[in-house]
Design a protein that fits this description.
By secondary structure, this protein is mainly alpha-helical. It is about 40% helix and about 0% strand.
């Protein structure tokens, strides 16, 4: 097993520490966000299954008014 503590004083020197390139850092951040989004979707699906698949608890979309579909009248 690898130790997290430095073996010698030189191992912990700032000049010897590893720095990530900006592109690698961005890739890791984007990858983490994708994984988090996937977990959120899976969690939502599991909660829906546990609730019997009933999504009626969510607010229903309002239906458009019938006045919008009336034919224009002659003037």
């Amino acid at each position: 097993m690898k130790s997290f503590l430095p073996q010698s004083p030189e191992a912990g020197a700032p000049s010897k520490t590893r720095r990530l390139k900006p592109a690698t850092l961005v890739r890791r951040c984007v990858g983490s966000l994708i994984v988090l989004a996937g977990l959120a979707i899976v969690t939502g699906d599991l909660l829906a299954m546990l609730n019997g698949g009933d999504i009626a608890t969510l607010p229903a979309a309002t239906t458009p008014s019938p006045a919008l579909y009336q034919a224009p009248t002659a003037r």
